[in-house]
Amino acid sequence: MRLLICICFLALFSSCFQTERNCSDYKTGTFEFSYLDNGVEKTAKFTRTEDYSIDFIEGKADSSSVRWINDCEFILKKLHPKSTQEAKAIHMKILNTTDNSYTFEYTYAVKEQNRPNRVEKGVATKID
User: Where is the signal peptide (predicted)?
Assistant: First the structure.
């Protein structure tokens, strides 16, 4: 009986917890994030406006269009893809926010037939 009461209290308090999501604070600005490239951690920057995102990776700029689905989700599509893989749109979702960063997940916007839809996560920090 005590176990049942403890589980009920735990469920009650955990259901009240919501992660902070002030996504509109991160619709525009300059950000940086870390990523792994062949086991080596690297840092990249990007600048996002309401309609475009410009990535700066290893001294090269690459532009994508941004189409917002709601305050916390958007679709990225490269403007000048160099391959069919780069031409695939990416669905980005802001999971939670802090004072200067947000955690996101991303996957292809259209699921590839006969392949699992791989979801990746990351953290972007607002620097401007």
Answer: 1-18
On whether the pTM is more than 0.70, the answer is: yes
Cβ-based neighbour number of residue 3 at 10 Å? 7
Cα–Cα distance, 65 to 125 (Å, whole number): 20
Give the dihedral sign, CA 32/34/69/76: positive
Residue 99 Cα distances to 21, 25, 115, 125, angstroms = 10, 9, 37, 9
54 burial (CB, 10 Å; 0-12 / 13-18 / 19+) is middle
Closest by CA to 21, choosing from 101, 76, 92, is 101
Q: Say whether 6 sits in a helix, a strand or coil.
A: helix
Percentage of the chain beyond pLDDT 90 is 59
